[in-house]
Design goal:
single chain; 326 residues; alpha+beta; Thrombin, subunit H; 2 domains; 6-stranded antiparallel barrel; 6-stranded antiparallel beta barrel; 14 strands; globular; TRYPSIN_SER; Peptidase_S1_PA; TRYPSIN_HIS
Length: 326
């Protein structure tokens, strides 16, 4: 998993459409669920559930297959039907990801968000699919560094339905203490130097690397800015790689999981002297809070017979499109 240099495996379009069908058929009512406003200032943005909790206790390069429900905030970002980046649930309408996943030349309407997903080819019982309402890119993105300010807030068109397998993660506050922590990264990116990928969500435990050491390893202080942090197992070649961009780096604080990083960039997969670089979530915490609190929620029409028929027709059309491609 090492990030801004590329995207994940380009698996065929047909499995992607089938996955969408599997999600839509059992849960067409998701888009019609009544909405509520996000929570007030704090590390949590939902009044419905506590953030940073999970009910399952225990390839990224050097990683292992993740169990369903172990990382309930994990998001798969798809573009034009393909998995391209990761993300994390931070509220009923909000996903946190990397800005470079949403480059200006991309059509926002072509993005889809999947939650409750472990295998990219198989929709699970808790898998939900969402369209994107808007994407907010941090104003310092690419201003002071080619990949600086690499943070994005994605607002969904409809609210996420929380369950044991779909939950938000807490956001690191500005004053978080990151000393002596070992954290976890998750994603569907490359799992080897040769670019091999896995359809199954991968997890890996990574120690944080102090900024002075990370700057030394990269050879220049200007390469690693204060809005970044580094993590990686330099000895055992455990890191993140292409396709993991935008995914979460989380640490456990007193039995609560907090996101401290967003997979951003690196010099390549599995090069032990170059740890992966993440957007430092605590640096952007106030910006995240401000926009979640002040961005209007998307309009939610009341459920009607016509809206149900509309979903049914949409599924049938997609089914016909898939059938014609087989």
């Amino acid at each position: 998993m090492a990030a801004a240099t590329g995207t994940g495996e380009s698996w065929p379009m047909i499995p992607s459409l089938l996955l969408l069908l599997l999600v839509l058929l059992p849960s067409a009512q998701v888009a019609a669920t009544a909405h509520r406003h996000p929570a007030r200032e704090g590390v949590a943005f939902s009044r419905d559930v506590a953030c940073g909790q999970r009910h399952v206790q225990g390839k990224i390069i050097g990683g292992l297959d993740a169990l369903e429900g172990r990382w309930p905030w994990q998001v798969s970002v798809h573009y034009a039907g393909l998995h391209v980046c990761g993300g994390s649930i931070i509220g009923k309408y909000w996903v946190l990801s990397a800005a470079h996943c949403f480059d200006r030349d991309k059509n926002i309407g072509a993005f889809d968000m999947y939650v409750g997903l472990v295998n990219l080819r198989v929709a699970g019982h808790h898998t939900q699919w969402f369209e994107v309402n808007k994407v907010l890119i941090h104003p310092t993105y690419e201003v002071y560094h080619p990949v600086g300010g690499d943070i994005a807030l994605v607002q969904l068109k409809s609210p996420i339905v929380f369950s044991d397998s779909v939950l938000p993660v807490c956001i690191a506050p500005p004053d978080v203490n990151l000393q002596n922590l070992s954290c976890w990264a998750t994603g569907w990116g490359s799992i080897s130097r040769q670019g091999n990928t896995s359809d199954k969500l991968q997890e890996v435990q990574l120690p944080l690397i102090p900024l002075p050491l990370c700057r030394l390893l990269y050879g220049h202080t200007s390469y690693i800015l204060p809005d970044m942090l580094c993590a990686g197992d330099l000895r055992n070649l455990k890191t993140v790689c292409e396709g993991d961009s935008g995914g979460p780096l989380v640490c456990e604080f007193n039995h609560t999981w907090m996101q401290v990083g967003v997979v951003s960039w690196g010099r390549g997969c599995a090069y032990p002297m170059y740890p992966a670089v993440y957007a430092r979530v605590s640096y952007f915490s106030k910006w995240i809070h401000y926009h979640i609190e002040n961005t209007p929620l998307p309009h939610q029409p009341l459920p009607t017979v016509s809206s149900v028929l509309e979903v049914t027709i949409s599924v049938l059309v997609t089914s016909l499109a898939v059938s014609s491609m087989l």
